[in-house]
Amino acid sequence: MNALTLPDIAAQASRQALPLDWVGMCGIALPILIDGQRLAATADAGVSLDDGAARGIHMSRLYLALEMLDQQPLTPALLRTVLQRFLDSHEGLSNNAYLRVHTDLLLKRPALVSPLAGWKGYPVSIEARLENQMFHVELKIDVTYSSTCPCSAALARQLIQQQFLDDFANTPLQHEDVLTWLGSANGIVATPHSQRSSAQLHVQLNGEQLPLTELIDTVEAALGTAVQTAVKRADEQAFALANGQNLMFCEDAARRLNLALKRSDAVKAFHLKVVHAESLHAHDAVAESRWTRHPA
Ligand SMILES: Nc1nc2c(ncn2[C@@H]2O[C@H](COP(=O)(O)OP(=O)(O)OP(=O)(O)O)[C@@H](O)[C@H]2O)c(=O)[nH]1
């Protein structure tokens, strides 16, 4: 039996008495429960070190408090309980507690037409903090979609009109000939460019739920061109139609999302950013929008 006491460096006085804003651990692996799914996640757990004279915080106490997250569904109430435990275990040292949880939410998405479905991963971060006894929770969600440039679509249509004039000049129009021409690559000489795009949401929440799926559904419905999972030709054709019916500059996408998110009761405030990874350019087209709900 070792009679020696284990040295406790964290309990020593700091040589430079200075409070710190955030001290803790990043990238802790843990499973979490969301909507009945067990998901692999990483957590960043921290507290402020307000006692500037204390050498360090007690990392193990934060780590052990995270145990609750793998046993109960993730809710704002649970996050608050964990944060309170961070503070209770750092009495006299810390006033503020922080927890970020990163995961990929997996949702099964049906195909547009065929009776198929597939899984889609949505990167999600849930950020909670207990600062001066005020609890805040925010969500970050990335949603991927397709955007077709409305300017490019108009320019392509003009080229098709020009081709029509060239091909049918001084010819009596025959329904059958026009139909064949419309179905040929000679007729539809130009196509607009599309790009894989992402909507990056940062949302402050009202209420006691984490409405992840609801927010993702809201975003995808507002844009109309969510990227697909299982795709047969019938689905690809429906996707082409959806893109043609939802031509979007990044400004259009940002405005659609702004309007849709404002309508959600779960949202108190947001900062959204849409990024269109241009195929016309080697750089991205980007738009951002912020909003805060004012008390009624
Ligand atoms: N504060 C601090 N601890 C660190 C750091 N890097 C590793 N650790 C280790 O984290 C481990 C756990 O710290 P504590 O929570 O204070 O462990 P403990 O003293 O056994 O636990 P308590 O008795 O509850 O205080 C210690 O072995 C520290 O050495 C660091 O940068 N800062």
From TrEMBL:
Pfam families: GCHY-1. It catalyses: GTP + H2O = 7,8-dihydroneopterin 3'-triphosphate + formate + H(+). Belongs to the GTP cyclohydrolase IV family. The gene is folE2. Converts GTP to 7,8-dihydroneopterin triphosphate. It comes from the Bacteria. The keyword Hydrolase applies. Keywords: Hydrolase. The record marks C149 as: May be catalytically important. The keyword Hydrolase applies. Its EC number is 3.5.4.16. Pathway: Cofactor biosynthesis; 7,8-dihydroneopterin triphosphate biosynthesis; 7,8-dihydroneopterin triphosphate from GTP: step 1/1. It comes from Pseudomonas canadensis. This is GTP cyclohydrolase FolE2.
